[in-house]
Amino acid sequence: MELSTWLLYISVISVLILSPGPSTLLCVSDGLKFGQKKAISTVLGGAIAALVLMTISASGLGAILIASKTLFLIIKIIGAFYLIYLGWTSFKSGSVKIPNNTITESKLVSHSFYKLFRKGFMVGISNPKDLLFFIALFPSFMNADLPQIEQYIVLACTWFFIDCLSMFMYAGLGSKISPWLSKSSNINLVNRAVGSVFIVLGSALVFSVTVDKKI
Fold it and tell me: Could you tell me if residue 3 is inside a domain?
């Protein structure tokens, strides 16, 4: 994988991971209720759930590539339009509701590592749309002519590191982030930024597929 491709991947997923979602709000909530250190288990649960979904998606893409490069090209086209669709829906989406117990006074109560980990994992794994998301995202940064496993390892490890770092930050800033996330104007701004990333990435993927077909 070229350095420029990897840096572009980092910039794209950083925006996506930092955008408010179910896992983000859970880390904010647990960081506020149990403290940043205990929330590490919540963060790890969500990050490992993402790795599971990425592995399933990458395995499917690998099997498709082995079967037919033309089929892999079709998946790229479908993925491109799916990303554009996600961008459009992000523009139209409203504010994210913050659970009431995340904006209350912090109370560091005892909770087991396993329970917080399980909660983080279940929130992360319970959204089947993430499977489609990773199937749509990965082809944009993978070269069909290079070894797939090595590329997947780079993409997955990069995602895991940035995901853990970002969610740990959210957990530590829970009491400060919650009021900011509760304002619809701020969430709308984030939604538009994320929507722009999806649309640009999807459009770029459509363009790259068109160029490949001409070549």
Answer: no
Pair of tokens at residue 14: 């950083």
Q: Map tokens 């400060």 to a residue.
A: 176
- The pTM of the whole model exceeds 0.90: no
What is the residue whose two structure tokens read 């590539």? 65
Residue 132 in domain: yes
Longest dimension (CA), the chain: 61
Residues composing the chain: 215
Instruction: Supply the range of the domain harboring residue 142.
Output: 21-214
7 in a domain, yes or no? no
| pLDDT, tens digit (0-9, with 9 covering 90-100), for 89-143 | 767 765 545 555 444 444 444 567 888 898 888 878 876 566 667 777 777 787 7
Flag whether 203 is in a domain: yes
Identify whether the C-beta of residue 150 lies closer than 8 Å to the C-beta of residue 163: no
